[in-house]
Structures are given as structure tokens and as C-alpha cells.
Design a protein that fits this description.
alpha/beta; Rossmann fold; Arc Repressor Mutant, subunit A; 2 domains; five-stranded parallel beta sheet; 19 helices; 13 strands; 48% helix
């Protein structure tokens, strides 16, 4: 994750924690932001048309079972949150999602309901949640999607009907790369469930046979600022870009409004909502009434890490057999391939129609672009070739490619710029 993400009090906290643990700083940073955003409750929001983005977020920490240090990263963050608001973890942190009905019941309105609608759902085995959603008649996916949106939710259970008009649910799931790729169905990608999550890779960053004691860290200055940020962020307030930050958004919007074809694009097609929520959290922690350029840069840095992690997990499949098979064969040939070379790659065991279908799909997706190989000697002719394009740098237009240059001038990392690095 880029340095810009470690901005303000959140960055200071993570740097201190990182000195005492093997846990990944990116995982600690984002889990703190999600926990703090839930702790704030339903006060601040970012208006978009007729809807609102609140400070609740969904996050998947993705890493290997033994060396991911996913749980360790949360334990470090949880200790600070306990110091910040002692009753919050005991009363509002939950685990073990069993159904959509149970989620609504935890935040239900009415007689016998709960006054505190904040709920931080911790799922240390998120693969179980994905399996649960695959069962016929299960409404968990729809309920979770509505809860990310902050919409009223209700269930019509015969035994325990319940509703919640102003929910404030945040979700942190821990999962391995293999489990996420295996149990994420095409339905959950297409219906917008998966794109409501941030994806953050977590790996053991160093070996510490004797980790430090989290209680030995001096938090006094950070707690003072965080307490003030809690009071500040619980006020009912709409957040927007400041005049200084506003010029940054058109190019960012243009870049992220284009959804790359394929599984990766479906999983990362809700960029604006995530960036708004992250930037708002950075602004609240900064006690700022508006989102400033540094808050935008921090949010974009987190989002770019999320996009990269999603590409790593889900791969660059388009979900089209001919295109995917052809892409695997040509993507690591930067010099490009001719029609004859494409046929040779498959030992001439694929029909011309199959290969033409794959080439056309890859061209439409921006994965291949046409080029020409110059003559190699007297009497030879130029040859038409197709050159592979890194899917992380695909842009739908020359205007968006030009936006990368403007990003560099404004100090923003783009996917293309990171790929070049």
C-alpha cells in the first residue's frame, strides 16, 4: 500500500503498532478505519444524488492461513479501540453470521429492539459466509448489500419478523486467496455483493520471535486526537470536496467509471463509494469539515491497493473461454504475435473461428491492440500482430490515458504509474 495511505492519526497509530508485530501494516490500517467508521455511528455522510454514503465499510483481509497474520493485525487494532471506547467492543463487535434474519434482528427497531444500531461483524472464516449464501432461498446476500448502502432492512420471518430503519453495519472478513476465488460465485460478482468490499492483502512482514507488548506502546497523544475525532464525527454533517480537492475528482471519476471487462472489473466496480467513505474517514480523523487533497490521496492509495489485490485474487479472466485461453498464451509475449504464431501456440489444434473469437473479445476488452511488425529483410513484408496490454493499465480512451500524466503532476498514484514502477 502506498505511503499516502498512512496519513494522519491512522498512519501514526499503524507505524507504532508495526514496530511491535509481524502483522501487515495495510491490514492494520484498513481494519482500524473500518472499526473507527463503525464506532462513529450514523452521523456524517457523503450525499450522492438521492443516496448517502455513511462511514460504514466492508473489508476482506486476504492472506495465507499460517503466515498472513490476519488475526494478529486485528488484535493490535482492537486493543486501541478498547482504549478509545471501552464498552464498544463488548457491546457492538459480533461474529458468526448465520443468516440475514439474524443480522436484522441484532439491530431491530421497536419494542424490545436496540437503541445502538452500530454493529461490527468480524468473520474470521469468511469462506463460511460465502458458502452460506450459496444455499437456495438464503437472503443474506441481499441483506448485506442493503446494509452497506445504509438502507432500511426488514425480514418477514414467521417466528421473528424484524426491521431496522437506520442500520450502521460494518464487516471485516478474513479469508485465504484460494477460498475467496473458490467460493465467490458468478452471482455474487454480478449482483454487486463483492464490489461492496475492499480487498487488502495481508502477509507477515518480518520475523519477530519475541513480539512487543501492545500495552507498552504510548497511545496518549493518539487517543487524545481520536477522542476529539469521535465527538467531531458523530455530528450530523454532510461531507464534500473542498475547493482545493474538487479539481482532483473529475479525472479520478473518469478513470474509475470505466469498469474493465471480466471478473476483476465486476469485483472493483464501486470505486466512487469506497473512495468517498475512505476520504471522509481521513477527514474526520483530521478534524476537517471538508475533504482536502491529502484525504483524497490517502483514500485513492487504499483503493489502488484494493484493486491490485482483487486482480491478484480473481485474476484477469474475462469469463469467455476462447478469450481466456488465448490470453493465457499471449499475455507474456510483449513483442506481440501474428495470426500464424497464434495458431502455432496451440499446435494448430484450435479452429480459426475459435481464435478469431478470442482475439476480437480481447481487443474489445482492451487486452490486445493491433500493431505492425516491420519487414525483416529484402522481399519481406510488414506483418500484422496483436500486442498484449496489462489489464491493470487498460483505459477506454486516449483521454483517460492522458489522465495518468495529470495524476502524476498532482501526486496521485495510478494503476499505470504503479505498473511502470
Amino acid at each position: 500500500m502506498g505511503d499516502a495511505a498512512y496519513y494522519g492519526v491512522a498512519g501514526l497509530l499503524v507505524r507504532r503498532l508495526a514496530e511491535q508485530t509481524e502483522a501487515d501494516p495495510a491490514a492494520m490500517l484498513t481494519q482500524f478505519l473500518v472499526g473507527f467508521g463503525n464506532m462513529l455511528g450514523r452521523g456524517c455522510y457523503w450525499p450522492v444524488g438521492g443516496s448517502r454514503n455513511y462511514t460504514n465499510e466492508f473489508l476482506l483481509i486476504i492472506g495465507p492461513t499460517a503466515r498472513g497474520r490476519k488475526g494478529t493485525g486485528w488484535d493490535m487494532v482492537e486493543h486501541f479501540l478498547r482504549l478509545l471506547e471501552p464498552d464498544y467492543i463488548r457491546n457492538n463487535k459480533r461474529s458468526g453470521i448465520v443468516s440475514g434474519e439474524a443480522l436484522v434482528w441484532r439491530m431491530r427497531d421497536g419494542e424490545g429492539g436496540v437503541d445502538d444500531k452500530r454493529s461490527l461483524e468480524m468473520q474470521s472464516e469468511f469462506s463460511g459466509t460465502l458458502k452460506l449464501m450459496g444455499k437456495d432461498g438464503n437472503i443474506l446476500s441481499q441483506i448485506i448489500r442493503d446494509l452497506w448502502d445504509g438502507k432500511p432492512v426488514a425480514t418477514e420471518s414467521k417466528t421473528q419478523p424484524a426491521s431496522c430503519s437506520e442500520p450502521h453495519l460494518s464487516l471485516i472478513g478474513h479469508v485465504t486467496e484460494a477460498e475467496l476465488a473458490r467460493y465467490t460465485s458468478a452471482t455474487e460478482l454480478a449482483n454487486g455483493f463483492m464490489n461492496r468490499f475492499l480487498f487488502v492483502a495481508s502477509y507477515m512482514t518480518k520475523e519477530m520471535p519475541f513480539p512487543g507488548d501492545v500495552e507498552d506502546i504510548d497511545y496518549e497523544d493518539l487517543l487524545s486526537v481520536a477522542h476529539e475525532a469521535l465527538r467531531f464525527g458523530r455530528q450530523h454533517r454532510a461531507f464534500r470536496f473542498s475547493e482545493r480537492a474538487k479539481p482532483l475528482w473529475p479525472d479520478l471519476y473518469s478513470r474509475y467509471a470505466f469498469v474493465p471487462p471480466g471478473i476483476w472489473g465486476e469485483a472493483t466496480s464501486r470505486a466512487s463509494g469506497h473512495i468517498f467513505r475512505l476520504a471522509m474517514l481521513f477527514a474526520i480523523l483530521d478534524l476537517s469539515r471538508e475533504v482536502e487533497p491529502e484525504h483524497v490521496r490517502a483514500a485513492v492509495s487504499v483503493w489502488e491497493h484494493s484493486r491490485t489485490t482483487a486482480l491478484y485474487v480473481f485474476g484477469d479472466s474475462l469469463g469467455e473461454p476462447a478469450a481466456d485461453e488465448l490470453w493465457e498464451a499471449v499475455k507474456d509475449i510483449p513483442a506481440g504475435v501474428s495470426a500464424t504464431e497464434v495458431r502455432d501456440l496451440f499446435s494448430r489444434n484450435r479452429t480459426k473461428r475459435f481464435l478469431d473469437t478470442g482475439i476480437k473479445a480481447l481487443v474489445r476488452a482492451g487486452r490486445l491492440h493491433e500493431g505492425t511488425r516491420p519487414p525483416t529483410g529484402p522481399g519481406s513484408r510488414a506483418v500484422r500482430i496483436w500486442l498484449p496490454v496489462d489489464p491493470g493499465t487498460v483505459r477506454p480512451s486516449a483521454a483517460q490515458r492522458d489522465a495518468t500524466k495529470r495524476d502524476a503532476a498532482m501526486g496521485l498514484d495510478s494503476s499505470a504509474a504503479m505498473a511502470e514502477k
